[in-house]
């Protein structure tokens, strides 16, 4: 439709978008950023940017050169020296304090990786012969351990970085991010940063969300960010790949404070195509504490509707039905920690009642449940996830899960058959862990 | 200059670099400018040129930035607004550099087609053609994305 001015509605839409979607004025700090060159984008801009940044801006923006007695060339040299020193310092401080591993990757033995008190350990699948490969204490430690699909590398996060190491624990590279996920074919690592409130990083804004797709060589293939003041993810964030490797989903979790009973609620889920397509809000969000969202065959998803109902649905969100009929497990206050079986027919999930936390294996087609492990709720203490399935070994049909230990002061890492048989304590004190895939190829 | 550069390249760092390079060029080449009345057009021409060069750097590393700075994202309406802005951003990014430039100079800076022709040193008709095709491409891109969303929105 064309208006009186000759502009169409679409013309006006574009004009309005251009006027409002982007910076409205030049920030004063850009002058300082120009002086220190690459400070605002130190990981993307090189020496040329640093030299350029120390040149013309102060002469253009300021009536007086702010550094009397120092020419721009001298300042540029000084800035470059400082940047190189900072980069060297970052490399020293940012890298995990690695203890040389003694496990040699032979490509045939599956391993276990887990986190205890922020340190990362590699061990045999039964938990023996553990070797610490990253010393996370006392700076908050490392966590979010994850094997690549081919079992040759693993990632863990900490100190605002995702660390990629080989199967012996040797650091391959590190890249910024608070959490990460391997693409199904193992060619990319999706990393996520979500900044809540204030941030120590000068190059991000509160509320900004950054997603990057990083190759196994450590090179960033593409990156997207949403620089908003809106807290559109929530307090806790997770990142998953869709099984076809064409998109990722990011979700948030809202954790309540003590006055709110310490409860947690799922935040919205968002779908982001890897090829740069539009952001889409998902009709269903993942369950809190889940290790998966879409079924491995890509046909279904498990999650929570805005009403709080926990459902299984088709991959596009249609045909949603309760994951477990209410009469099968009475008195459930909530479900969390959903984990699909490799054949997409079953889901391991934890149900909370007033009396206990119970890990169930659920038949997706029928809603039938088998109780695998139960933990009395009072003994769970203040642990956020006293019972949580984290990995499903399809070949042995066993679950890897964490459960609050006897003292209820921390978690322990267990493995158990999906029918509840042969429980085995692997590591006491471990918060999380993951099996190295058995099916990986020889290097 | 920076605000215009940002809207062409859609990236803070690249816009800063393009602006800095423009300022350096102005500083160095200003004595060669014979007609002071052409200063504005001359400046925009350099902004466009350096945006083009910085955009090549963008393609090399594949950075994409979507700014939703004022979005309140707690409700379905907010999600709709976010999606709309994301669609516009994506549609704009699909344009060639030449098409982006005419859209920004006309719809953001407010230059007339004749003034844009002067800045770019191309015929008036070329500017009109570029603007027409740029907006048509953006609209087509958005309509295509809308159809995909209606059909399911994400891969099965």
Considering the chains and any ligands shown, give keywords for the structure.
heterodimer; A: 443 residues; mainly beta; Neuraminidase; 2 domains; four-stranded antiparallel beta sheet; 5 helices; disordered C terminus; B: 156 residues; mainly alpha; Rna Polymerase Sigma Factor, Chain: A; Arc Repressor Mutant, subunit A; 74% helix; 0% strand; globular
Folded structure, characterized:
The complex is a heterodimer of chains A (443) and B (156). Chain A is built from five helices and 27 strands. Chain A is mainly β and 443 residues long. Helices cover 12% and strands 37% of the residues of chain A. Chain A has helices at 9-20, 29-35, 47-53, 56-61, 72-94, and strands at residues 111-116, 119-124, 131-134, 143-147, 153-158, 161-166, 171-176, 179-182, 188-194, 209-215, 220-226, 236-241, 247-255, 264-273, 280-281, 300-304, 310-314, 321-322, 334-340, 346-352, 356-363, 369-376, 387-393, 398-404, 411-417, 424-428, 430-435. Chain A is globular and about 70 Å long. Chain A has two domains: 9-94, no CATH class; 111-435, Neuraminidase (6 Propeller), CATH 2.120.10.30. Chain B folds into two domains: 1-65, Rna Polymerase Sigma Factor, Chain: A (Orthogonal Bundle); 69-156, Orthogonal Bundle (Arc Repressor Mutant, subunit A), CATH 1.10.10.10. Chain B is mainly alpha-helical and 156 residues long. Chain B has helices spanning 2-9, 12-29, 39-61, 76-93, 97-109, 113-120, 124-150. Chain B is built from seven helices and no strands. Mean pLDDT of chain B is 74; it is low at 59-75 and 148-156. Chain B is globular. In chain B, helix 1 (2-9) packs across helix 5. Classes of the chains: A mainly beta (443), B mainly alpha (156).
Shape of chain B: globular
Number of domains of chain B: 2
Name of the CATH first level of the largest domain in chain A: Mainly Beta
Major sheet size, sense and barrel closure of chain A: 4 strands, antiparallel
Described by strand count, sense and barrel closure, the largest sheet of chain B is: none
Q: Can you identify the CATH superfamily of the largest domain in chain B?
A: Winged helix-like DNA-binding domain superfamily/Winged helix DNA-binding domain
Overall number of strands of chain A: 27
């Amino acid at each position: 439709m064309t208006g009186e001015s000759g502009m169409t509605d679409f013309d006006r839409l574009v004009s309005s978008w251009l006027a409002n979607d982007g910076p409205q004025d030049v920030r004063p700090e850009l002058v300082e950023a120009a002086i220190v060159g690459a400070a605002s984008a130190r990981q993307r801009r090189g020496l040329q940017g640093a030299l350029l940044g120390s040149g013309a801006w102060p002469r253009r923006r300021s009536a007086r050169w702010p550094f009397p007695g120092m020419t721009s060339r001298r300042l540029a040299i000084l800035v470059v020296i400082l940047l190189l020193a900072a980069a060297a310092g970052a490399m020293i401080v940012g890298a995990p304090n690695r203890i040389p591993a003694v496990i040699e990757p032979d490509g045939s033995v599956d391993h276990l990786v887990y986190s205890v008190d922020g340190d990362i350990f590699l061990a045999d699948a039964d938990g023996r012969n553990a070797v610490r490969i990253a010393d996370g204490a006392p700076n908050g430690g490392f966590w979010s351990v994850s094997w690549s699909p081919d079992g040759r590398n693993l990632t863990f996060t900490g100190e605002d970085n995702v660390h990629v190491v080989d199967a012996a624990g040797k650091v391959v590279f590190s890249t910024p991010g608070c959490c990460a996920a391997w693409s199904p074919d193992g060619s990319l690592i999706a990393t996520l940063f979500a900044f809540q409130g204030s941030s120590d990083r000068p190059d991000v804004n509160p509320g900004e969300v950054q997603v990057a797709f990083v190759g196994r060589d450590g090179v960033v293939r593409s990156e997207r960010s949403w620089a908003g003041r809106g807290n559109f993810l929530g307090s806790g964030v997770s990142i998953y790949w869709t099984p076809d490797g064409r998109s990722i989903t990011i979700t948030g979790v809202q954790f309540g404070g003590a006055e709110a009973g310490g409860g947690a609620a799922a935040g919205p889920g968002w779908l982001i195509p890897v090829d740069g397509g539009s952001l889409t809000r998902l009709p269903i969000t993942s369950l809190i504490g889940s290790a998966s969202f879409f079924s491995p065959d890509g046909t279904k998803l498990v999650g929570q509707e805005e009403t709080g109902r926990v459902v299984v649905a088709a991959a596009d969100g249609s045909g949603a039905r309760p994951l477990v009929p209410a009469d099968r497990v009475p008195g459930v206050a909530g479900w969390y920690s959903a984990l699909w079986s490799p054949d997409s027919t079953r889901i391991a999930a934890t149900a909370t009642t007033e009396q206990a936390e119970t890990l169930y294996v659920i038949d997706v087609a029928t809603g039938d449940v088998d109780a695998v492990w139960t933990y009395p709720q009072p003994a769970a203490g203040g642990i956020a996830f006293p019972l949580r399935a984290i990995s499903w070994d399809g070949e042995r049909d066993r679950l890897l899960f964490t459960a609050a230990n006897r003292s209820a002061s921390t978690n322990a890492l267990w493995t158990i058959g999906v029918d509840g048989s042969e429980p085995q304590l692997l590591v006491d004190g471990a918060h999380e862990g993951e099996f190295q895939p058995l099916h990986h190829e020889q290097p | 200059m920076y605000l215009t550069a940002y809207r062409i390249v859609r990236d803070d760092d690249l816009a800063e670099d393009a602006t800095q390079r423009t300022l350096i060029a102005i500083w160095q080449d200003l004595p060669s400018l014979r007609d002071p009345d052409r200063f504005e057009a001359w400046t925009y021409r350099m902004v466009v040129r350096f945006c083009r060069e910085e955009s090549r750097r963008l393609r090399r590393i594949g950075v994409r930035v979507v700014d939703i700075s004022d979005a309140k994202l707690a409700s379905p309406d907010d999600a709709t607004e976010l999606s709309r802005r994301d669609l516009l951003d994506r549609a704009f990014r699909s344009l060639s550099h030449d098409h982006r430039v005419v859209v920004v100079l006309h719809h953001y800076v407010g230059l007339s087609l004749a003034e844009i022709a002067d800045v770019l040193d191309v015929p008036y008709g070329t500017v009109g053609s570029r603007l027409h095709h740029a907006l048509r491409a953006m609209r087509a891109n958005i309509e295509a994305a809308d159809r995909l969303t209606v059909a399911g929105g994400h891969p099965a």
